[in-house]
Amino acid sequence: MVGGTLGAIKPVAPTALELNAKLLPAVKLSSPKTNRVCSSDHRTEVMHKNNHKLRIGIVGAGNIVRTRHLPALKKNSDLEIVAVSSSTYESSEKFCREYSLSALPMRDWAELVATPDIDIVWIGTTPYMHSAVTISALEAGKHVFCQARMSMDLAEAEEMLAASKRYPELVTMLCPPPFGLRGDLMVKKVLAENYIGQAHHVRLQSFHGNYLDPHAPAHWRQKIEISGLNTLTLGIYVEVLQRWLGDITGVFAREKIIHPVREGYAVIVPDLLTVLCSFENGAEGVLEFSGINALAEGDRLEIYGNAGTLTYDFAADVMQAGKVGDRALHVVDIPSELEGEWRVEEDFLAAVKSKGRVRPHPNFEDGLRYMRVVQAVSDSRARNEWVAIKL
Which of 322, 212, 297 is nearest to 262 (CA)? Predict the structure, then answer.
């Protein structure tokens, strides 16, 4: 185990980056300014359920909500799910029957957002809806929890952040990635204590083979009109890396698509992505992502410094480290007081109950930081050149 105290991590303010309009058409099926009228009958029915609990309306009640968020939400006796708007009215009804009999299914997310007696809008949709639903919910006076990735592109992320700043009394939070959660504080501690010295080389590999079958239909993550510029696990791991190593300041990206047509759909989201990057702390990085690697091992990070090495196996949640002169890396024991756990729902609800005294992370500024890199990678792919990210 590595001793010492954990130093403070200095936040860096986000900046804007040139947008690449060629890669992402403005495909938005909903708008913050449309469909703002809701059924008075539905409004009244939800309002009659007011019992001084926090009232949640869910937009997009898919698998991630059912399996990741709902179990923790249902443990809280001082909140209730009062309305659900999913991809179809039938799916909303099914969710209510199976998970929340007292909740009201709604046909349109805009109807749900406009309901005055809802305190929190919980967004579990794919990225193409995040900006529209978030901004509408904030304008309607609701706290917002939004599924990751934050948005389709940098422009939408900037709009979401600007809206959150217009309503500072409302709590906004993005869903963090679970990867590296267990060892998050320990990694920060080891790096802050300079156990491996000055980091100079970073290698990340995130491989799977889910897109190898040429006859499989395009996954929603392969559809740019749904996922935007988000590619494979790029945004997830950029969020993790910037939390541990600071901001990425420039990128050069290469891509490959091995099955450009899937059941008549033209795929333009890469199956394979390689990113060279530089960090604000001076380190250089090689980030590799693939959905076409058969028998790939678990995702892995290696950080090399002038005094040692730190690795993180994300599949096993195991951290190893070693100093120059050691015969091999050794497993780093994580003390219980530094061991992270999934507390996302509790953290968000605690912030809402604090009435602004507590601000949870990742917030929209954190999301903007990783969306800057996602946008820069897209721009680099399009222009085949190094793209600097001004901080």
Answer: 212
DSSP H helices, the chain, are 40-47, 63-64, 70-73, 89-99, 109-114, 130-139, 154-166, 184-192, 224-227, 234-245, 344-353, 364-383
Fold observed for domain 184-341+372-388: Dihydrodipicolinate Reductase; domain 2 (3.30.360)
Mean pLDDT confidence for 317-321:
97
386/276 Cα distance (integer angstroms): 9
Q: Which of 134, 132, 111, 139 is nearest to 121 (CA)?
A: 134
Would the CA dihedral through 297, 298, 303, 308 be positive or negative?
negative
Positions of CATH 3.40.50.720 in the chain:
40-176+343-363
> Sorting pLDDT into bands at 50, 70 and 90, what band is 391?
confident
Q: Give mean pLDDT, residues 55-62.
A: 97
Cα(311)–Cα(203) distance, integer angstroms:
9
Cβ neighbours of residue 217 closer than 8 Å, sequence gap 6 or more:
262, 263, 265
Both tokens assigned to 281: 């702390």
DSSP letter for each residue of 18-65 = ---TTT-----S--TTS-----HHHHHHHHTT-SSSEEEEEE---HHI
